[in-house]
Protein: Alpha-hydroxy-acid oxidizing protein
Organism: Gluconacetobacter johannae
Amino acid sequence: MPSLLNYDDYRTRARSVLPRGLFEYIDRGTEDENALRYLRRGFDRVMLMPSVLAGAPVPELSTPLFGRVSALPIAIAPTALAGMVWHDGEIELARAAARCGIPFCVATQSITTIERIRAGAPDANLWFQLYVWNDVSLSYALIRRARASGVRTLVVTADTPVPLNREYNARNGFTVPFRCSVPGMLDLARHPRWVARVLLPLLATSGVPRYGHYPSGLEGNVMRASASAVGLKRSLDWQDIVELRQRWDGELIVKGIVNVEDARRAAQLGVDGIVVSVHGGRNLDPQPGPIDVLPRIAEAVGGRMTIMADSGVRRGTDILKYLALGAQMVLVGRAGLYGLASGGEAGAVAMIGMLRNEMETAMALLGKGRPADIQLFSLS
Ligand SMILES: Cc1cc2nc3c(=O)[nH]c(=O)nc-3n(C[C@H](O)[C@H](O)[C@H](O)COP(=O)(O)O)c2cc1C
């Protein structure tokens, strides 16, 4: 991807190739979209303090995690509907992650099933993200499928008990479930290449796109509301985490924590890790970002479990900031999708390579070999 030099270039490419409704579903936030602005401001308030004449320490970005080594302190975050961004998008992302030596987290709401992703990317370190359904017995059956596909790391999303207020999607016609609307149909007509490369192959192989993991008969397709048995469990609580802990013999991660008390509770229940996350600014609009809360959470539970972070990463230096504030691993959501939209597996590999280069350059300028040694300087 020689002409794509930074995140914004990939984002611009994605905007041109994807239908507007799909692009905005990926790109935007909720309600007044304050969270997106606040995330950026949070990163911009924190500077990295260089040490000069440091003797060129070799940057060490490989990261031990759950008994394996990840080549970079990056994992690809779970994102619903990646299979609509590129044909077999989830498989392409899994292959890209495997080529880069990093984990890929498969979403409950992916188009492609975990079994097909495993078959398409046998070497990938696959994690599985769980949205707990109203009928929890169906969720337990789903995690057994994930385990049988070689998944050891289960990521339970805790910050989404209800559907979100995405007003722009109501306007641009990209609603989930999808509905035929005039803006939606015009949008498709303006993106014939996406229709030919992504939509038509999907229609030809599996009909109207479906959420791959929904039990047969309950999922309908992405144009029909799911049955209530597979609706998000609104009453999700810590007892669900206890039950999942008993049923899952691999690593259990809770995603979507910003409150230090919640982090403590997770640690007490024997959870192996948390993702400090505001869901990429796509859920509750007014809430503190990971930048604000990471140091407190790291102080409270660091050493007792693995702390990861995500939301708002646009540069390698954003990743370094999360790491310097106490995260051991950083998840990227939109970055992976924009790489995917720009060139499938190769585009996602190029995007991750770009983030790696940005991190290595910054570490050389900072005179540090390890992200954990980086000093921060906060602007008041
Ligand atoms: C299009 C899209 C779909 C997403 N779907 C899910 C999902 O199904 N489950 C989940 O836990 N998080 C989901 N997320 C949130 C990501 O896992 C992650 O927290 C977020 O994207 C990180 O922010 P970033 O996109 O700024 O890197 C989604 C994010 C995007 C952009």
